[in-house]
Amino acid sequence: MFRVEVLVLLFGICALASGRGRRWQSSGALGALTCNGKPAKGVLLKLYDHDSITKNSQMAETKTDGNGYFLLSGRAKHWTTINPRLYIYHDCNDDLPCQRRISIKINRRFVNDGIRATKLHPAGTIELSGKYPGEKRDCIH
């Protein structure tokens, strides 16, 4: 009996190490950014799969267009449901070194299986001039 348990354990470890059982999942967001009511042009946005144990995985990156609009989507391969977060790096009303970073958690209902996001988080218009809970400064991104 002990040998069977050891074999099952070894098989499980090999399956985890090989990546079997992981599945492609996708998510994304769209919206607009403003600074003092005007379009925030060229603002960097990144989409990450936020992990509690391992390093966060970047899924996508873009910048806002001339009207402050953005659309980004990405994918990650994971055993469990991904935890997407949208990071916004900006200098609105800011003269300090580095950039302000806002993190927005994307609800799991905007995660789908597959390599193409079919459900995008509607972020709406985000005014960057205010202070946000959990806002940080980021010099290396």
Automatic annotation (TrEMBL):
It comes from the Eukaryota. Pfam families: TTR-52. InterPro entries: Transthyretin-like, Transthyretin-like_sf. Residues 1-21 form the signal peptide. Keywords: Secreted, Signal. Gene3D superfamilies: 2.60.40.3330. One of its GO terms (cellular component) is cell surface. Belongs to the nematode transthyretin-like family. This is Transthyretin-like family protein. The lineage of its organism: Eukaryota, Metazoa, Ecdysozoa, Nematoda, Chromadorea.
